[in-house]
Amino acid sequence: MARSPDTAPPGFEESFDVLFSRAFTSAQRLLPSAAASEDVAAEAMMRAYLHWRKIGEADWREGWVVRVASNLALDAIRKDKRLDRRRLDEASAGGSVSGRLDPDVAESMALATALGTLPKRQREVVVLRYLEGYPEKDVAAALRISPGSVKTHASRGLAAMREQLGPDADRWNDETEAVTAHV
Known about the structure:
Distance between the termini: 44 Å
Structural class: mainly alpha
Strand content: under 5%
């Protein structure tokens, strides 16, 4: 049975504002502009619309939308190497063309780059668990893996990020603070 283009699937419109907000927030933590974050959130919601029969009633639908938004944001970072490379160069130089680069922006970009190098499953777990703050059981349900696998992927992902971030990572002893306090 085909849907009319004018008719949203049951429950989609009621959930849209909350899910869009979560997708936007997730993208905003990784991307440099609100416009890019809004584009990613809109794309994530379009994908949610297309998969609503599968995810609409699921307990993990919010995690699914956040995961899609995070993956899209990281894809956008990879695709825009010119912007990404320029900002990373500015961050490592300690300044920018217009003056001084905000340290929070530099840290966010370094974390986004480190996240982008992780294997997909580790990246998904780190984003959902530490950037979005979901409990292990919710991350496991959203990704359809066991809670033990969530712990393993989180541990390996954070260790890889600490290794990439070098001496700056030493101040991030607590795993939760390692990601959430600087993004």
